[in-house]
Design goal:
Largest sheet: 3 strands, parallel
Distance between the termini: 53 Å
Strand order of the largest sheet: 8-1-9
Structural class: alpha/beta
Strand content: 5-15%
Helix content: 40-55%
Low-confidence stretches: 259-267, 324-332
Oligomer: single chain
Mean pLDDT: 88
Radius of gyration: 20 Å
Length: 364
């Protein structure tokens, strides 16, 4: 039986290498193998088919969390606060401006701006903030996950299209893929019942793509989802990418249980292992045949696994992350500056290349 399973795995991988699309049941079969070296070899070959050179990209940017006040009470999050908490905040523009100045001084070309779902921050707050940032710095604004955009549309009593149109006019350049978690409502009802549904998350992305706003896509795995649900998530992303071609990258990261309610509720005490992360990354590369770029999640897995992931389907090291608060709140703190990222890439046998959100190469 084991031999037969091995032959089945090999035939699925041969199909992928031949350029044929693998199906969800075949992806599930791949999760049954313990031979992650084989998965890594196939994922690496598919990555090289996308781009023949040995370039690994990265971006110099900063993650700014404009507020930690949030009404969604997600059980996997250790970052959010109630408005009445002593350590809750909404950053004044002066603080945000200072953080952007530091980013520009370090060669940064983008701001990743995300925050909690604050009941009192309506669309006019974001229009004013974006306009000020654009007037003062002209920097690329990669801002507001789909769940934040849905929240803004609701508290502002606006349609989704009007919300996106006004945000774009104010300076929104692209949308990060946060808040996707697992795009299956059974899972979302357990870990984030007050956030947008899976359909709503996908709807924001589809409408954004239709307006010429590029986005990324994420998957947070290793909590209450089944392997079938992990694959359903990937399939929903692949279907939308077939339709719009609006996703520039996919980022998978493992759940960090530290300091979270979900840790106690679910009994999950340990973070996703390097083995599980690399296997999921490689299968994502094999399954997501219409995504050009997969990012390494060194922020959650650490620099060494981040480097190894370049042999498991990742072709991008993500961001220098001059500031990271959400994952850090769960007790995971990995930091690397641009020189360290370049060294990891070079030591792995690749060529480092600075990029922008659309994966255009930038001078160093």
């Amino acid at each position: 039986m084991r031999c037969q399973d091995g032959m089945m795995i090999e035939s699925i991988l041969e199909k992928a290498l031949a350029g044929q699309r693998i199906q969800p049941d075949e992806a599930l079969q791949l999760f049954s193998t313990t031979d992650i070296l084989l998965l890594g070899n196939v994922a690496s070959k598919l990555t090289r088919n996308k781009r023949a050179d040995k370039t690994i990209t990265y971006i110099v940017d900063r993650n700014i969390n404009y507020t930690n006040v949030c009404v969604t009470d997600c059980s996997f999050c250790a970052f959010y606060r109630k408005e009445s908490d002593a350590d809750s905040y909404v950053l004044p523009f002066e603080t945000i401006a200072q953080k952007i100045e530091e980013t520009v001084a370090a060669g940064g070309n983008q701001i990743l701006l995300q925050g909690g779902h604050h009941q009192n921050l309506k669309i006019d707050y974001f229009e004013e903030l974006f306009q000020k940032i654009k007037q003062q710095f002209g920097i690329h604004l990669h801002a507001l996950s789909p769940s934040e955009i849905i929240h803004i549309s609701r508290v502002s009593k606006l349609s989704l299209d009007e919300t996106l149109t006004r945000l774009k006019q104010a300076g929104l350049d692209s949308i990060p893929g946060g808040g996707a978690e697992i795009l299956v409502d059974r899972v979302r009802q357990i870990i984030s019942p007050k956030k947008c549904t899976a359909d709503e998350w996908l709807e924001v992305m589809e409408h954004a793509h239709g307006m010429g706003i590029p986005t990324t896509a994420t998957m947070m795995f290793g909590h209450v989802e089944t392997l079938e649900e992990r694959i359903e998530h990937l399939e929903r992303l692949r279907k939308l990418q077939d339709k719009t071609q609006g996703f520039t990258a996919f980022i998978a990261w493992g759940f960090q249980p530290g300091n979270t309610q979900l840790q106690g509720d679910s009994g999950i005490q340990t973070a996703v292992t390097g083995f599980e992360y690399l296997k999921t990354l490689a299968i994502s590369r094999i399954f997501l045949d219409n995504f050009n770029n997969l990012q390494s999640s060194w922020v959650t897995q650490g620099p060494k696994i981040g480097q190894v992931s370049l042999y498991y389907g990742a072709n991008d090291m993500g961001s220098t992350m001059m500031e990271e608060n959400v994952v850090a709140a769960a007790g995971t703190v990995y930091c690397m500056d641009e020189e360290e990222i370049k060294r990891l890439i070079t030591d792995g046998g690749f060529i480092p290349q600075r990029r922008n959100m659309k994966y255009d190469y930038l001078p160093h």
